[in-house]
Description:
An eight-stranded mixed beta sheet has the order 32-33-35-34-36-37-38-39, with helices on both faces. The protein is α+β, with helices and mostly antiparallel strands. It contains ten helices and 39 strands. 49% of the residues are buried. Helix 6 (509-515) crosses helix 7 (519-527). The radius of gyration is 24 Å and the shape is globular. Helices cover 15% and strands 37% of the residues.
Amino acid sequence: MPRLSLDDLFRITVPSDPQLRPDGSAVAYTLTASCKEPDENRTEIWLAAPGAEPRRLAEGSGARWSPDGRALAYLKPVDGVPQIHLLPMDGGEPAVLTAAPLGAGAPVWSPDGALIAYAGAHGEVEPHAPVVTDRLDYKADGAGLLRGVTTHVHVIQAVPGQEAVRLTEGDFHAGQPTWSPDGRQLAFTAGMEPDGDLNHSSSVYTVEVTGGEPKRLTGTDVVCTGVWWLGERLVVAGLLSLVGHTRLFTLEPDGLVELETGLDRNVMTGGPGYPGAAPQLRGDDLLFAARDAGCTHLYSMPLARPGAAAKLVGGDVSIAGMTTAAGRITYVASTAHTAGDVHLTGEQAPIAAYGLDGVELYVPRRRMFTAPDGTRVEGFVLRDETLEGPSPLVLDVHGGPHNAWAPVFDGAHLYHQVLAARGWTVLTINPRASDGYGEAFYTAAVGAWGLADTGDFLAPLDELVAEGVADPDRLAVTGYSYGGYMTCWLSTRTGRFKAAVPGGAVTDLTSMSGTSDMGYLLTKFECGDDVVAQSPFTHVADVRTPTLLLHGENDDRCPVSQAEQWFAALREQGVPVRLVRYPGASHLFLLNGRPAHRLDYNERIITWLEQWVTGSPS
Length: 618
């Protein structure tokens, strides 16, 4: 059976956001594919049910069932901006529901099915007007300069031809709303504090559907990141500190009360690059996702008896979306052999499977390593198990720094599989600061980027070299975002790498503080006072490693100037260096950018490594 090739990018389809019909009989979900012609990502709504072949329903994403299960509301672009559409399940044609000038957000049905709420953008966008700001949050990665555009709560009748009613206004961004059980109120998160850009404060508010001023329900002791009305309770996801685990709370008369799960694990509510699912209520049990040793698992806990969370779905899987209805649960799970399958409890097999037919994949093997200070770190070794003797090895560093590698199929890093097929070993490490190993481990590199975790990478290399797995003369390092930072940092600490490929890199934390959309918060809460000591650029004169820099032109999270500085310094020093800039690409282009850009990113890494490490360019 053939091994994966980079062209398989165009055969990979990824399910997400599974939504169980209220009677538990079928699942609607979003299916994403990468198209070669035209060069774009395609999203479609599909339907799967036990005993039936999955079928396509419509172009779009984010489908939500009406309470009676007779219609689906979903998002589809109209004139380039997303609008809510309504698809009757009796066979009728879909209808456009909203006409939001800057686009509508995900639809949220009222309990009686009469109204749909959403968070939509507002503002006047004049591309040539001066951009004036008094706050730091004037831009956002993926959106660019906000130009005064804010996001607010709206409601619209669930029949075509109606006008949406805006319920909130002001200089803040309202999060996705959630309905009260009686349908009279909507709850949402927002940062309305005057200095919210300095402390990233966010609280829970409610607003009456009939209008009026929003009512604040929580203080500043918890940074609220999401809110859901589950039964009669408001369940809130939030942070006690900006660097720490996301926790679950219930809103009681005296304020937020943490729901003790009995797990020293980060609750995962889902997001780009961070799998998980919004919490759900099944009977009296709260369902939620949490990260465990890199994987994302599904848990259940009686609301009346906190602290007794039980794992419902575990193992080497990552959960990406979950809902419950009629006592059943649906979820999407990726494994080492699939980018995601749609599961429904009570069924022996997935009701929709999306493995790569006809392709044999290498499976990452778990390994524990010991850092110089005795800290145990987990890693994954990907290689051809029939390979004998030491091989060239590439160390790949994850981003975050609070993300984590998992032993599941990785459609963003296809070069892992291709390099393994060419006789390489791919080593991925979850160093201190990685998610899934407890909060003390999660915060262990705060104020000590590079300083605390360098040994977490170099010690595993030493072990694999000593075991005869890795060739000490054929080592390379790569990584994206924080991984790009660490690629540059390790290049200043050691000359053992024959090639380096930093993507979306951070090189100078001083300039990063004033140019990134999250720079101030990053340096204040993650790096502390001494950003100079933690900046690779401080030590750039020590670099001799041939370096390929890959960066999105429109990256506002890790601005392209970070790569420019590194490129210029290495060029001036006579170090072999190349800078590749991807036009229009934001920080997340490696996940959701143009397929041609993602393919090019993978190809360039392989070519650079083989040129400088093995001397056998493809």
